[in-house]
Design the sequence.
């Protein structure tokens, strides 16, 4: 078997290309983003479960391939189709029969109802349904329902979808200790919320809690007209927020262009003055030594103004990279090119999908982008103000000095004896 790291990278490239090019755009849940999330979950759980060596490598290769079967154009037995893609990959990258069987077993274990037999299979099963115990459950549920409607032709009503979710969550159990300790409690919270919205569930729970009006994904007791009105209000709010950010971005961009324009004017003017001073006045120093101080003063003013003008327009580029942890912890602002220009396209695409799928992360990035644009703009205008002050007061002082330097020889000639 080839180098494990190389094999895993080849598996990632092969599966990513297959999903990107062959899987229908109507597949909205089992996308390349979902595959990346499953791989990341496998790594996290495998670390906690202390799975290492060949079993871990087989698990991660299987994770990359576990949903490639959707490229067949249907979801029926997509696990079997995924195994066929894995076999084709192994024909290009020969591995031992034992390793191949481990990877195939992991994929087939995700078939519903899940029935894992090994620790690696248990980890992939839990990673594949990691979203059930994550804060993204509502959004993932929406994407899955949309996929069933568009790709499978199953147009379930909200009530049917809610009841299906309740039945699935009640029947599901995580296999790993990580899943039971970390994911299960969050999954039970999602189930409790669904039961609150379900008439039968309300009777069972008997807690008398009111529906959360802000949770539209679960709130299926409203009439169609009420839902339309609510969506209209939400859309108006979204448009208002978009308008605010757009206006702020345009204003800051205009101010930045104005600062750059003013700096360029100042650089041009001072460059012209320097040229005149060097080419013309330098020849006058031999006949009038009093001009030396005004010339030095004027050159200093021009050079200083040019330096501060350049500081106002000088670009500042950051390292241009981010880590997966940065994205999951929402630390990186992907709206600024300086944070991603050294990243590969697949990594940037995954990160942007994470950003766009999380409204809070998106709004936070917009706020950060606007804030740091303001910080940069303030620095531009601070340097520019210094440059203009130096130029304004320096020119005045230099002109006074020139007037004095010219007057001294004349006064000396007037009062020179006989």
Sequence:
């Amino acid at each position: 078997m080839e180098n494990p790291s190389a094999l895993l990278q080849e598996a990632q490239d092969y599966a990513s290309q297959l999903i990107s090019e062959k899987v229908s755009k109507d597949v909205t849940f089992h996308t390349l983003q979902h595959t990346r999330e499953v791989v990341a979950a496998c790594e996290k759980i495998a670390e906690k479960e202390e799975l290492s060596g060949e079993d871990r490598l087989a698990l991660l290769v299987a994770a990359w391939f576990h949903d490639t079967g959707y490229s067949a154009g249907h979801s029926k037995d997509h696990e079997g189709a995924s195994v066929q893609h894995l076999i084709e990959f192994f024909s290009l990258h020969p591995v031992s029969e034992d390793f191949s069987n481990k990877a195939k077993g992991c994929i087939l274990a995700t078939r519903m109802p899940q029935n894992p037999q090994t620790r690696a299979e248990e980890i992939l099963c839990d990673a594949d349904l990691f979203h059930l115990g994550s804060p993204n459950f509502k959004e993932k549920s929406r994407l899955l329902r949309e996929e069933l409607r568009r790709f499978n032709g199953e147009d379930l009503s909200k009530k049917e979808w809610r009841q299906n979710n309740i039945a699935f969550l009640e029947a599901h159990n995580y296999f790993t200790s990580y899943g039971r300790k970390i994911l299960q409690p969050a999954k039970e919270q999602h189930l409790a919320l669904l039961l609150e919205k379900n008439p039968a569930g309300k009777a069972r729970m008997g807690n008398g809690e009111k529906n959360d009006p802000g949770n539209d994904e679960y709130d299926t007791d409203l009439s169609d007209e009420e839902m339309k009105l609510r969506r209209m209000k939400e859309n108006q709010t979204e448009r208002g927020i978009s308008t605010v950010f757009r206006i702020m971005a345009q204003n800051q961009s205009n101010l930045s262009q104005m600062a750059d324009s003013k700096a360029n004017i100042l650089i041009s003017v001072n460059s012209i003055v320097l040229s005149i001073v060097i080419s013309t006045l330098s020849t006058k120093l031999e006949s009038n030594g009093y001009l030396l101080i005004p010339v030095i003063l004027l050159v200093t003013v021009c050079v200083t103004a040019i330096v501060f003008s350049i500081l106002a327009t000088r670009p500042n580029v950051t390292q241009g990279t981010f880590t997966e942890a940065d994205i999951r912890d929402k630390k990186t602002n992907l709206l600024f090119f300086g944070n991603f220009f050294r990243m590969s396209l697949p990594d940037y695409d995954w990160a942007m999908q994470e950003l766009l799928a999380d409204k809070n992360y998106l709004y936070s990035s917009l706020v950060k982008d606007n804030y740091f644009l303001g910080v940069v703009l303030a620095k531009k205008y601070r340097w520019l103000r210094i440059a203009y002050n130096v130029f304004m007061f320096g020119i005045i002082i230099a002109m006074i000095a020139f007037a004095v330097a010219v007057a001294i020889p004349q006064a000396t000639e007037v009062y020179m004896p006989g």
Remarks:
- The chain has 15 helices and no strands.
- The chain has three domains: 1-128, 132-221, 240-414.
- Residues 202-223 have pLDDT under 50 and may be disordered.
- Residues 132-221 form one domain.
